[in-house]
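Shape matters. As here.
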Amino acid sequence: MLVVQESEKVGAHIASEAATVSVDNSVVNNGNLAKQDDVASQLTDAWKTICSGLRRDLGAQIFGQWIKPIKLARFDADNGDLQLLLPSEFAANWVRERYAERLTLAWKAHCSDVRSISFAAKAGAARIAQVKQVSDIPPLHGSTAPNGGKFQPDLDPRMTFDEFIAGPSNVLAQNAAQRMAAAEKPLFNPLYLQSSTGQGKTHLIHAIGHAYQAECPAARVIYMSAERFMIEFVSAMRRNEAMEFKAALREADLLMIDDIQFIVGKNSTQEEFLHTVDSLISRGKRVVVAADRPPQALDGVDQRLLSRLSMGLVADIQSADLELRRDILNHRLSSMPHQQVSEDVVEFLARTISRNLRELEGGLNKLLAYAQLTGRPITKELAEEQLSDILSACRRRITIDEIQRTVCEYYRLDRNEMSSKRRARAVARPRQVAMYLAKVMTPRSYPEIGRKFGGRDHSTVIHAVKLVEQLRGEDTEMDNDVRMLLRQLES
């Protein structure tokens, strides 16, 4: 077996930076001793040359940390696979993911007998599974993936900017995310995305990762949750590999941490995260974090860290309004033309499932799956039947009194005008809008609504609902008024 021992002598020659080789010929397959000695000598010379080039290209610090500890472990003459040995599983996986392609090309260029390389941890360290030949490993687009690929971005292919539907509630965050993902230097750093659960901040983080990798294929991208950051950091400390963990993070070109609110109260983790953010920003690297609250509301977080997180742009994502929810459903259905879902079902789902977008899409998916499995047509009745649990949790009991009060405040009318007999347009039109809203936002019947508006006949309410629907399609100002009132009532 080929075994490499790190030289203890420090000299000017690159041999002091590389490894010296001794040979156990019994492990070299298919060949006499002379041939085995010749192969071992070739490997030794090739490794010294490769180390010289890597030291020059990577710099002394990176070379010393990641390449210098490598030892030549085993060479299989049958398939041309050379196994490289590293001091820990962490280091073995990190070097494999970060430098495998470069090392493979270097070995093929300097030693024709080597056709592929594999990596392992030294005896006593947790062993890793035998990896595929490097020539068979697909490229990682330059993404950083230390710790056995645990830091590999693992981005959801569905969460791209093309699949992100923008509206007034999230357009600032979307534009900021696109700027952060562009090749040119961002105007702000870090980017802090804030929203309640299920409003799209995680989607934007994944979209940034996809777009930035497309713009800069060689970039090193790391994405993880704050909880995972803490677990990985503590695990690295227990394995005495904290330095490798820190180095891996600080080599990122783009670091994205989700659910940063879970980092609260962890002093050592906060300290490390603070230093990581400082290091990246000072070198012009990009940092994106997301949380369910603004930085100032993160209780138990070091003030220095709060200051760093607030120094860039804090982009707030508000709850999606009715139109945005409707657009999201229609966009989802546009990719499934074979699914027949009527407009009234879309409208029903958009109006009823309003707490967050994750529930909205989950409700639609459940409805589509049930219809496919049973063959039943998708109707409003089916939606009410199958989504009763979601609908009951999402419904907010909006009353006609609340609608009247909101409309009167919006149009600056006295509340009594909702029941008065006055027919002046300045009074009648807001009253008709309130009737329309009462019909679309409450389960009340036309006669019940009429009674709440001064005892009016149900036909008057029907006329008001049809008129407002017509005016929304013809009059932009009327449509904007109704949208604003819907947003206020749903918030």
